[in-house]
Specification:
- This protein is α+β, with helices and mostly antiparallel strands and about 140 residues long.
- It contains five helices and four strands.
- α2 packs across α3.
- It is elongated and about 65 Å long.
- It starts with 8 loop residues before the first helix and ends with a helix.
Amino acid sequence: MAETQQVDPSDQSDADESVRNGEDGRGGVNRAPDRRAARAERRAARLARSIASFAQRHGGAEGQLAYLGQAGTRIVLVGEDGGWGDLVAPTYDVARVAAEKAGLTLHDSFDGDLAAKVRTGPYEWKRMAGIQLGG
C-alpha cells in the first residue's frame, strides 16, 4: 500500500509565498517569471516595429485588437491609404503593449468608420467570390 502524508496548509502557503517571491523552493531564485516578462517585452518590441513600418508605408495607421483564444490576439491594421494587414501576438497584453509602443490608435471594434477605410483589390473580391461559389 502506498504511503500518504498529510500536508500542513500553513506549510503549503509558505511554499506558495516563496514561489511568488521568486524563490525556487531549494533556496535559489526562480528566474522563470523574469524570463517570461523579458520574452514578452521582446515580442512586443518586435511587433511594435512591424506596426510602425506598416504605418510608415501607408501614411499612418489605426487598428483593433481581436482576441483569438489560445492562438493569441490579432492586431488588425488599417492604413490611411486603405491598405490593411494583420499581425498575431501571443497574448492580449503583448498586443496592447506593442500597439502603445508603436503609437497605434486603437478602436474597440471593427466598426463602420474603420471598416470604411479598408480598400480591397481584385484578389480579395475574387477570393470572396470563390468562397461563396465553393472555391
